[in-house]
Amino acid sequence: GIFPWYGPGEPILWWSPSPRAVFDPLTFKPSKSLKKFQRKHQYKVTINQATEHVIQLCSSTRPADETWLNEEMQAAYIQLSNLGHCHSVEVWHDNTLVGGLYGIS
Question: Are 7 and 67 in contact (CB under 8 A)?
Answer without folding.
Answer: no
